[in-house]
Specification:
globular, four-stranded antiparallel sheet, single chain, Methylamine Dehydrogenase, Chain H
Length: 150
């Protein structure tokens, strides 16, 4: 996904109508996620930021800064407490969505992180990188559990 116009567009899928255009990123958007409670949209961009948007009020809630290169992937926990992002800066970052700050930087990949996921029980983060590894991290402890290589 790539949004070169730097916007997140909110659509009503039932009536197939655009309901909002959310502006704030200063470069192309590469990834989005919606929290499982449907309250927030999370976006990652080439401007090195993760942004949180309130769906109901169609407004910007937070800018999460820390990555030093393009944010390539975002996801969030099922309990709506954490956002996880991956980046071209080789890191995975954990953000506390409630207080809107960075909780941890997970280092270990040697190339761009291209995918992040969280297990359904919110215990583990799984990241995939162009370094041909998949890493599993403990969310609570913010530590690497294991690495799987090609």
């Amino acid at each position: 996904m790539n949004s070169p116009d730097k916007t997140v567009r909110v659509w009503n899928l039932e009536n197939k109508r655009q309901e909002a255009v959310l502006e704030g990123h200063i470069s192309s958007i590469f990834c989005v996620a919606i929290t499982s409670d449907g309250k927030f949209i999370v976006s990652g961009s080439d401007d090195d930021t993760v942004r949180v948007w309130n769906i109901k009020f169609k407004r910007h809630e937070a800018i999460l800064e820390g990555h030093t290169r393009k944010v390539t992937c975002v996801t969030n926990t099922s309990d709506h407490r954490f956002i996880v992002s991956g980046s071209d800066d080789h890191t995975v970052r954990v953000w506390n969505i409630q207080v809107k700050h960075q909780e941890a930087i997970l280092k270990g990949h040697t190339q761009k992180v291209i995918s992040v996921a969280i297990t359904s029980n919110d215990k583990f983060i799984v990241s995939c990188s162009l370094d041909y590894t998949v890493k599993v991290w403990r969310l609570k402890k913010k530590t690497q559990e294991t690495a799987l290589a090609n």
